[in-house]
Amino acid sequence: MSQVTLKIRQKFAHKFKQGQPLIFKEAIANLDRLKEEGTIVSLEDEKGVFLGRGYYGRQNKGYGWMLTQKETEQIDQRFFEGKFAKAWSKRKAFFNNPDTTAFRLVNGEGDGLGGLTIDYFDGFLLLNWYSEGIYSFKDDVIAALEETVSFKGIYEKKRFKTGGKYIEDDDFVSGERGEFPLIVKENGIQFAVYLNEGAMVGVFMDQRDVRRTIRDDYSKGKTVLNTFSYTGAFSVAAALGGATETTSVDLANRSYEKTVEQFAINGIDYEAQNIVVQDVFDYFNYAVKKGLSFDTVILDPPSFARSKKKTFSAEKDYKDLLKQSIAITEKGGVIVASTNAAKVHMKKFKGFIDQAFKETGHKYTLLEEFTLPKDFAVDPTFPEGNYLKVLFVRKR
Ligand code: SAH
């Protein structure tokens, strides 16, 4: 593989010295050196002092990642073996827990490997490659996994464009082929997972602690509205926690059968639950017209979405989403507000909550606050990596 020296502008050099791993555009003084993704880059400050070594790979976040600060260390199979062995040993508690058989094994830069995540689903590994650059290390990565992790089979998702397009195939890489749905467990809750059907596999594991909290502390005897419900994972948690009724709303047609499936594999009578295929914003209007209200309302929208009528951007529209939710939440009820929008950090998110309650003339109490769970490791020098923010708020 080719190797080039990348000059880091002096005013950013200290960041890399401290271990900040993202190779961002403004930091690079000789951008013209970057030609082929996957090129190994040695980072130097403008005085020629070695800062670290990494690779060139374009993602929305930047131009690649620094992977080591040791001048003698090469990026090869042994390097990946070291990272995987460490990631595995950090997550021993997960491997030893029969109630949770799905978790993140490698969380990109949080485990020293910017651009690659690896999830563990009951013996199967799912690799998410976020750039053509990191994908060029595939052979070394697979060989290193074979040396360090015990697994049945490997699947992958290429989360970058090839020839201007995202390619979706059946994503099988090596080992044993899985039978889908694969049934995994999370704190005793079962989820049907498909590793062979595109980037979204059926459950977002970063909400594990939130689902447990909803099940254990916010469901018994409650009516629960789950908006942007996808496969209904929060609804399943609520139903298992003793909710009197759940309502799941998502505009994707596939969400109906996917939600039925998640209820069914948990032994819940899905016919006793409401599963609505509709635009959430239309559903809010419908609920107001019908005088419906709920004890618990869950909001987990994508950062950005375009539906037929409008676009939703968490940064611009979350406050209004909250206002509409407050209107159909019982007094004393709880809103679970979640966002993974990078631009909406926790302080800003709390500001949206405060404004929404003020503008609707209600008081509130902040009950719980969540960020990423332990297996979604975050690099302390790169706090932007902690994208998840979840707040539980009581309407008084
Ligand atoms: N809360 C889910 C994950 C949500 S993923 C979970 O815990 O698993 C985002 C979902 O929002 C997708 O399923 C998408 O179909 C849905 N969505 C996007 N815009 C929507 C809208 N305007 N109304 C309803 N659903 C929407």
Q: Main attributes?
A:
single chain, alpha/beta, Transcription Regulator spoIIAA, Rossmann fold, 3 domains, 7-stranded mixed β-sheet, 28% helix, globular, binds S-adenosyl-L-homocysteine
Question: How does this model look, in words?
Answer:
- The chain is an alpha/beta fold and 396 residues long.
- It folds into 3 domains: 3-68, Archaeosine Trna-guanine Transglycosylase, Chain: A, domain 4 (Roll), CATH 2.30.130; 77-185, RNA methyltransferase domain (HRMD) like (Transcription Regulator spoIIAA, 2-Layer Sandwich), CATH 3.30.750; 204-395, Rossmann fold, CATH 3.40.50.150.
- The protein is 28% helix and 31% strand.
- The protein contains 11 helices and 22 strands.
- It has a 7-stranded mixed sheet, sandwiched between helices. Strands 5-6-7-8-11 form a 5-stranded mixed sheet.
- Helix 10 crosses helix 11.
- The structure holds S-adenosyl-L-homocysteine.
- S-adenosyl-L-homocysteine binds at residues 204, 207, 228-231, 233-234, 249-252, 255, 279-281, 300, 302, 305, 307, 312.
Provide the fold topology.
Layout: E1 3-8, H1 10-17, E2 40-45, E3 50-59, E4 62-68, H2 77-90, H3 92-95, E5 102-107, E6 116-121, E7 124-129, H4 132-135, H5 138-148, E8 153-158, E9 161-162, E10 165-166, E11 172-175, E12 182-186, E13 189-193, H6 208-217, E14 223-227, H7 233-240, E15 245-250, H8 254-265, E16 274-277, H9 280-290, E17 294-299, E18 304-306, E19 311-313, H10 314-327, E20 329-339, H11 346-360, E21 364-370, E22 389-395
Parallel strand pairs: 1-2, 7-8, 14-15, 14-17, 15-16, 17-20
Antiparallel strand pairs: 2-3, 3-4, 5-6, 6-7, 8-11, 9-10, 12-13, 18-19, 20-22, 21-22
